[in-house]
Structure prediction request, 596 residues.
Amino acid sequence: MKILVTVKRIPDPDESLKFADGGVDYSASKWVPNAFDEYAVETALRLAEVAGSKERLAEVIVMSVCPQGQRQHVTQFLAMGAERGVVVDADDSTLDSITISKLIAEVARREEVDLVVAGKLSQDNEGNQIPQRIAGLLNWPQACFAAEVRREKDAKELTVSREVDDGVEIKKIPLPAVLSVDLRVVLPASVSNGVTAADHRYQEGARLASLRGITMAKRKKVQVHSLEDLGVQNSGSETTRAITPPPARPSGQIVASAEELVEKLKSEAKVL
Amino acid sequence: MSNVLVVLEFADGKLKSSCLPGITCAKQIADTNGGELHFLVLAAEPSPLAQAVAGAGLGATTVHTMASPAFEPFTAEAWADGIVAAVHATNASVVGGTASSSLRDALPRAAALLDAALTSEVTAVGAEAVLTRPISAGRALLEQASSGDVAFFTARGSEFPPTEGGGAAATVSELETAEVSTRGVSVVDIQKTKSTRPALSEADVVVSGGRGMREGDNFKVLEELTDLLGGALGASRAATDAGMVPPDLQVGQTGKIVAPNLYIAVAISGAIQHLAGMKGSKTIVAVNKDEEAPIFQVADYGLVGKWEEELPKILELVKAAKAG
Ligand SMILES: Cc1cc2nc3c(=O)[nH]c(=O)nc-3n(C[C@H](O)[C@H](O)[C@H](O)COP(=O)(O)OP(=O)(O)OC[C@H]3O[C@@H](n4cnc5c(N)ncnc54)[C@H](O)[C@@H]3O)c2cc1C
Prediction:
């Protein structure tokens, strides 16, 4: 089995935004991997590995559309345990969702992967649409917002618990397919592959790279593509008119007691 | 014609009230581009549903229906097929609806099949179809225009008032059923969270607890307050991840986006991802033992203290206030 995981870098979400000229100035930002992509790689690794053994059930490839020389996040994911990388040399901030999805779908086709795993959204752009688009372009089934992923040994399908508005939906999807993962997919028992012992518990969260992983990552293969050689044109369907800070909330007050709080909620805010 | 097509959702034979803000947003888009408002009903037997919606007078001129057993239960695969066929048949130039988990799932897939742009979580409609949406956990607003023959949107439910009925009735028009396929997927089960409380995203009052509640049992005092106020219960990610309450109660960037009249955050620190889901609330109350907690920066009323001591007092006082 081959699994392609989509990953991107984002400006550190803990840094405050610098607004300038109707946009945000990221020139001094620290760039970090998108958290949901860490969860996606963790999901793929849990599907691929047999815990406690060297055996692998799948090859995990990470793919990123990112500017040349800005591939630290790809190296980080290789250090986490992905086998190899595929990058498309392009400034992703200038490409729209249509174009990025086409690039990923094209790589998925060429690599003949069985599964694409993506984070459910990027913390910066919050588009929440790339995985669904990839599935559409490939004409594959999709399971979005996955909180649990189960595969039986050698099965050509996955059983996915998806977080939906009023509960959880359990959906079986035949492979090849596209999966987008939500936060809870990295809880200790959220992913099983039918070979790793059923009572195995992972550490919560995405794994950290080991020292050995970091050394190995430098030797792992990263294939580089361009838009041209993947046959994709920038569709340019989205135009940014402005990026502005949201209106600030008027500052509030600290009340001294529960009595004062309830009194003010009643007479001042008039919400009781 | 720049018609705007809204994809509707139903539960137990009724239009979901969560669709109503998306209709309002669509109407605003139609008003700016001079088009008509149309609805789309995808179901095994859409006629009765469509008749009821047409009669409700929600502002649409036409309610289109497409019938296929593959539309139930919902799958993004079959719905995207239906939406694409409906766009072709109706020549709609804008397609969307409220950003529900289903439309977030199906609309981008349909947009990809039509090579169309999609603007997610729209919070405001400007001139010339420029749509505003929050990015970076609500710390910035992006104003975006899209080009192309068709453009998709999802509207953030908390940012548009629900459309009210009572207008002119719409005509129902049956569309030919396209080739619709679930691509071999099956929905094995839907585990609905049972609750007698109003839906989190539609409630007037939301009471949320965080990690500082320590365990699920301690949420009882919050539930009591919630029910006293006729509200919905919410939680931070830390509380849902710890299993104190079900995951669908999570408020935030990756959970529900709420904007009630009154939001009460108890033992929640106020991480940006949490704020992203509740900053739009009218009045925000925070109870936290740490006076440095960032939640106090967005709170209209902050009370520094332990919930163990303050919540029972608040509960009694609210009871008295309600009685008086
Ligand atoms: C990609 C990503 C997405 C995320 N999405 C979300 C999201 O959608 N929603 C969300 O909520 N979080 C989200 N988070 C997590 C978020 O960053 C925070 O970790 C989380 O909100 C913290 O929850 P908390 O405030 O309950 O816990 P903490 O930050 O641990 O805060 C607990 C608070 O309780 C107070 N406290 C403790 N004991 C008491 C007491 N006895 N009485 C009163 N106060 C007490 C403490 O002073 C503290 O302020 C996301 C994180 C990431 C990385």
